[in-house]
Amino acid sequence: MIEKVNPKHPDKICDRIAGAIVDMAYLTEENPKVAVEVLLGHGKCHVIIETTADLSKNKIKSAIKRIAGNVKCDIVIVPQDTHLANNQKGCIRCGDNGIFKGMPVTDEHKALSKIARDIYKEHPYDGKYILDQARLIICQSNVNTTLLKSTYPNAEVNPLGDWTGGTDVDTGATNRKLGSDMADSVTGGGLHGKDLSKADVSVNIYAFLKAQETGKLVELSCAIGDEEIDGKPYSEIVQIAKEYIDSIGGFEKFAEWGLF
Q: Which of 54, 99, 206, 257 has the most CB atoms in a 10 Å sphere around its CB?
């Protein structure tokens, strides 16, 4: 059983905005410290950023409008907390407490991920999808329900009929669709809007990738300040996560579909 939402779902739009801001931070510093929260809906976008990076509000506004459309922007940028900043001095250490469970992706997960992507290519609007054994549920906005039903005749398509969706119908917030991003994997934190020193990003990516490689459950925990996780230096965990993020095109691209 799995649910996926596409990149135009309001929550994913927030994840993408947060990812775009983290990408900006990495353009200004080699190892920035940044945490971003986004709340979006009904013509307004509120963003709070804690960071060491020198970020331009004008560039942030441009990114918000590129991703979310013509919305009114409220942007707050504050320095990172001194204690958190000091944690990283002289060594790459775990940036937060956390619990992580990486799980292998199943054939059912892969099947729904493909369906979601195929529909999004033809209909790039707010949508969400569920596959529970033989039951396929497709809720896709801004499309003729009968037309989509002809492509997926065995699916339950738009149970309440055609709909418009988007951020004028539903508000969005960062890290609210982790089930869509991680399948059966579990985390105590969130994947998006944070730099790679944050365990919520790096250790989640590491645990997920290890689960795919081994085909087994991977369970890890960490405390802020840890210099080693799973028998590896934390710097190596961060490097593995960085290589993954770079391979898919950055944090904004990562936010579109999550880990699978």
A: 206
